[in-house]
Amino acid sequence: MIIPSDIKETFYKVIKGYLPLSDFEQWIYNCDHTESYFWPDDRLILLTLDYNSGHAPHEVRRILFKYISEAEMETWNLLYLLTEAKKKDERLPAILMEFYDLYFGYDFMQDLALSYGLRVEVPYANESWNDLSPSEQQQM
């Protein structure tokens, strides 16, 4: 089964938490062609799942990982974060901190992680990003 890239992107965003489960639930209900991309049992589970329950995120991830590989997921996530970082919007500090977290699994992230992510994570001794003034944040 070949899944189009826009459908896969929805899967990736749900798994990484960039798309809330409530939005995914509406997408499942309103997307007429999902039956083409899910096995009938999986689609039925997704249509009848209580998305407010504590096990819903695990169940959704379990099903979606049947259709995409973890390698695809990680590749997409790295490219997504790099693209988002280039926008330099209000999410940039969080993305840079995520680069620092990713460094522990991906050595090639060293420059981004240590030069930028760590500086945002721990800007100065005993301070956090939120303790800095807006001008200090901008300068950093």
Write up this protein.
It is a single chain. With 140 residues, the protein is an all-alpha fold. Helix content is 62%, strand content 0%. It is elongated and about 55 Å long.
Summarize the main sheet: none
State the order of secondary-structure elements, H for helix, E for strand: HHHHHHHH
Low confidence ranges: none
DSSP helix fraction: 55-70%
Looking at how many chains there are and whether they match, the oligomeric state comes to single chain
The overall average pLDDT, rounded, is: 88
Structural class: mainly alpha
Radius of gyration: 18 Å
Envelope shape? elongated
Strand runs, count: 0
Task: Give the amount of beta strand, in percent.
Answer: under 5%
> How many H/I helices?
8
Question: How many angstroms separate the termini?
Answer: 47 Å
Mind sketching the topology for me?
Blueprint: H1 5-16, H2 21-30, H3 40-48, H4 56-64, H5 70-86, H6 92-103, H7 110-121, H8 134-139
What's a quick, concise take on this entry?
Helix content is 62%, strand content 0%.
Task: Give me some keywords for this one.
single chain; mainly alpha; 8 helices; 140 residues
